[in-house]
Amino acid sequence: MELLQVRNISKVYRTSRSAAEFRALNNISFSVREGEFVGVMGASGSGKTTLLNIIGGIDKPTTGKCVIAGQDITVLDKSRLAQFRIKNIGFIFQDFNLLETMTLKENILLPLALNGYSAAEMERRLNQLSADLGIGRVLAKYPYEVSGGEQQRAAACRALITNPKIILADEPTGNLDSNSGKALLDLLSMINKKYSAAILMVTHDVFAASYCHRIMFIRDGEIYNELYAGESRKHFFDAIIDVVGVLGGEAYEPGFPGCAKH
Amino acid sequence: MNLAFLAVRNIKRSFSKYMMYFFTLSFSVFTVHSFLALVFNEQVMEKLTYSRRYQSMLVAFGVVIFVFVSFFLISSNVNFIKARKKEIAMYSLFGMTNAKIGRLLFTETLIIGTAALVAGICSGVFCSKLTAMILLNFTLAYFVGDIPFVVAPQAVWFTAVPFAFVFMLMGTAGRRVIAKFELVELFKGSKLPEANIRGSALHLIVSFALIGTGYYWAAIKEPAKLLLLAVPILLVVIAGTFLLFWGGLPQVFRWLRKNPHRYFSGENMIALSIFTHRIRSIGSVMAAIAVMSAVGVTAIATGYTLYGSMEVSTYDQLSYDLFFYGGRDVRDEVHDVFTKYGVGILGEYTVNRYQVKAVQIDPQQTVERVFRIYSESDYNRLIEVSRKIYQPIEVKPGQGLQAGRDIAAYAEIDEPYNDGRQSKLVLSDLELAVVTRADMANVHFGAYQMLVVSDEDFDHLVQTGTFASVDAFGEPLDEVTVIKYENPLRAHQLNSELNQILDARSSGYVMAYNYYVEAMEVFGLVCFIGSFMSVVFILMTASLLYFKQITAAEEERHLYQILRRIGLDPKAESRVIAKRLLPVFFAPLLVGIVHGIFAMKSADTMVFRHMLDVDNTFMVVMRFSAVMYSIYALVYSAFYLITKRQYTSTVR
Lengths: 262, 652
Fold this sequence. Notes:
By secondary structure, chain A is an alpha/beta fold. Chain A contains eight helices and ten strands. Chain B is of the alpha+beta class.
């Protein structure tokens, strides 16, 4: 079943004074099934983060629809959108986005607290998740007292605590060293399997991308290419490198080996 | 693009932030200028009887305000520069030297300073007539005249020069602040610079103990003891308040954060955690405001209470609208004046100021004393005319009622006679048993001691010629007349003519009006200065909090970004911001009010109980301070709303 449907989304930025416009996204359509782990790659300025923001309901598209679990989020007003976001979408960011004024525990419980859950229910969910994510010991600490990996796991824990149907991850490994990065990716895979949450991950990192089931490449606001993971992660990795090479080299070479054209 | 251009552009861009700064600054300039303009206004000074006293008081308070303002300016300037840390680091990164950035900030300060100076002085000049009228209205019991509009150039100079000097000083202070900035700050992620302070239960207990001790002392009922404790009370309460805001409040927050049912309601959690984070930087300011608002409000409420109850306290001191010494001729002239102005006399009585020497014999000693002596019926007629209400008395033959103005206060008698001890008085051939009463009227008319005897005994003494006809200085003892008349404190023309006649003709007189006028002048001035001071003070403290919160908003902006991504909807965000800012403005106010209640209790014990003739003086005082605190609360609410709007637009 399709969890997320993006239909003909465009995002156009206009400066008020001149007629010049900039198309960050140009008529993009795709869908994500339940429990799928999808990567989004592309050069800087290609529109990946704009896309993620629109799906996450942080930004509004100029035209097009974005349907999550049967609800078109582009028609919701701000308050309803905030409610919808809390219930259905989990976010993981590059710079963790933990509030430094709160302990990890408070950070993780925040989405539930904003939604008026009972204290007992919060504790129950937290205990289970924090054990799974291995941060039970550091829950009472403040973000600046723990390592980057622990912070990112806490951020993942916060994204998961509402049992979201889809998790949006914006460069989650960007601020981590390779070991912590790999640990986080393993964690995301585990989350993907155990909690059967769909994950949409924007990344620059080819290694991170190789954990996905499918990768969409975006260029100039359009979907340029799509890759599906095969049996071997090594092959998938090499194929991604090839496409990234093409995208980075600004040359469009049709029929590049290993690419299934969109 | 030169520095001046950049400075003007910066001011334009953050106009709304500068507005509050500008307003407070202008008002301070306005106040100082207004005070000085009054001092230099000859027409005003002419109208006041005690103009020297006035001038020095106005100048002194002008200086006090000026010092306050200087501190406020320098501290808010530092806050301002800190809020612009990133912008300044950016200039520096692009190769601006510190000296140049310093000049840029200096130019900005100068532009705003000059504008505020011009605005303050212009509005000061514009309103100078109004302020002069207000002052005269406050201080003169009778004022219907008009004052011409005058511009005092000295006042303008004496305001402009010191302020210009302070602005220069601020420019240099700015240089020192930017010298401390590190370029690296620009590249650090947006993180709140402060660590969480956790407070401790010990802090809380000690602060409560200190404040509680202060309160306990403040509630002591003996004025003498209270006076000795005044400084210790101030010290423990101030120490306790600071400790409360530094360590006690964070501890309370920590307890709150441990209560999952309350705390985990999302909005509380966010607001409380951010506020806890902030308490270190804002704690001292909040404590200072709590203490100073209590002191300020108490002082002003005291002034207003005394001012507002001037009539009552006038009669408390004097009892009579008018009394004068002199014979029939003086009385006739006085009556003519009353007829001339058509003022009705409500009561009048004339009595001889008889004086008698008597030997007082009690178990310890035998002393000769001089008494003012009345018969029972004379005394009872005298007190009928008094504005204060006294009980008529009854004296049996062979008895003497003795009263001192305040028996214990006079060295002539060591102890009050109302302890039941028996003494005897020997007057020529009469021997009287002495009875003492504390509730006797103040009708001594120049003597230390008063004696009331029965009508029979009095007649006997008159017949035997026991009374002296001249006093100790050889002056003839004539009659005294007491008069009660309509509107005694308002009949200005009547009173001034009476003053003229009695000055020339009477050997002594006291008019309630004169006493009232002098008291009005003193307390009126105190109230006038106090009102201005308190407005300056409220504005400055409120804008100090405002600046602190705007600086904080810059640093907290990323927190709200995160929260919005997590799913904080705009309505909830607005509630979070309200909860975040409310304690900043209202915690000091609340503590200040509680302090104020106890300060008023002390003021009541020391001052009001003696000056006011009301059953529950404390409640009278509380009414006045309630008005003051309402004004405080109103201004703070306005600032809270402005701050909230600015904060919201900053974090969005």
